[in-house]
Design brief:
Structural class: alpha+beta
Strand content: 35-45%
Number of domains: 2
Oligomer: single chain
Number of helices: 5
Order of helices and strands: HHEEEEEEHEEHHEEEEEE
Number of strands: 14
Mean pLDDT: 84
Largest sheet: 7 strands, mixed
Distance between the termini: 74 Å
Low-confidence stretches: 159-165
């Protein structure tokens, strides 16, 4: 009987040790999960913030370095992460890199003398010539115009040239007055890319004049501000328009064009009631689209994350 009781006590003691070891292992695993989860969540959050800061900063790479840094700081401030900024590398008209670092407190690991670890993230974005665009106006510019930034241009809305160039009326999404007016006011909802062949159509100067004048009245950014480097995110009088080569030009009537690039055109003044001319300047600007570094640069840029 005494022998059986001794064996029972030994087995019970062994069970207590095993249970203790199991509980210690479970607590260790739980602690590592908590600390690991905290690190993962922090890194994921920081990476999203860094991506947003890089993309927003890239939109200003056509302006000046001060504006780029201001936008990056604004994005970080909005996410309460300004104090995590470690470094910003800026190459104007090219790319931007953003590095963030944050000390993350540990809970379980602090028992072993490791109270916090730094979490670092990096994001980079670049701009490049736009090879595919969304929101394009149904007005095309002949490549022979050779658009230069911030120079005054007077462009005809009609089937003829003048001394500075020609706006072709493009049948984006199909012909028809209603489609044309919708695309001119809001931009074409579909995508347009390099190499696309687009048919032209007859323009309605009265409809064009009315819509253009509405767009001018909706944006208060002045020509002087644009020439001084202003880069408004939403200005209705800045049109994203295709650059083209004539494709089917029969008996002085242009029937179709081939897209070779994109440009932004800032309308400087309303169209006079007796005129068929749109006056404005070409500006360098980023917009929604896709980069194609193999094409000619006309000052319209798309953005993409690279790291």
């Amino acid at each position: 009987m005494k022998k059986k009781l001794k064996v029972f006590r030994e087995e019970a003691g062994s069970s207590i040790v095993l249970i203790g070891l199991a509980m210690l292992a479970l607590i260790t695993i739980m602690g590592l999960v908590i600390d690991g989860g905290s690190l993962f969540m922090t890194k994921s959050h920081l990476q999203k913030v860094a991506n947003a800061a890089a993309l927003s900063g890239a939109q200003e790479l056509t302006t000046n370095e001060t504006e780029v840094r201001n936008v990056v700081n604004k994005v970080l401030t909005e996410h309460t992460e300004l104090n995590t900024l470690e470094h910003v590398k800026i190459d104007m008209k090219d790319k931007i890199g953003v590095d963030l670092v944050k000390e993350v407190p540990l809970y379980f690991s602090s028992l072993f003398g490791k109270g916090a670890v730094p979490v670092k993230v990096h994001a980079a974005a670049e701009i490049g010539p736009m090879g595919e665009a969304v929101g394009v106006a149904p007005l095309g510019i002949d490549r022979s115009v050779n658009p230069q930034p911030y120079q005054e241009y007077t462009l005809k809305v009609g089937p003829h040239d003048n001394d500075t160039g020609f706006f072709g009326i493009l049948a984006l999404g199909g012909p028809g007055a209603d489609t044309y007016k919708k695309n001119l006011r809001n931009g074409y909802e579909g995508s347009v890319k390099i190499g696309d062949i687009i048919e032209t159509q007859t323009g309605n100067i009265a409809a064009t004049r009315s819509i253009i004048n509405d767009l001018v009245n909706q944006c208060t950014v002045t020509e002087e501000e644009m020439k001084d480097g202003a880069n408004p995110r939403d200005c209705e009088r800045i049109l994203l328009i295709p650059i083209y080569d004539p494709e089917d030009d029969d008996q002085n009537q242009l029937k179709s064009i081939k897209i070779v690039g994109f440009a932004h055109f800032y309308i400087t003044e309303p169209i006079d009631k007796h005129s068929d001319e749109i006056k404005g300047i070409f500006v360098s600007k980023t917009d929604t689209g896709f980069i194609d570094n193999t094409i000619e640069d006309f000052g319209a840029y798309a953005i993409r994350l690279t790291e």
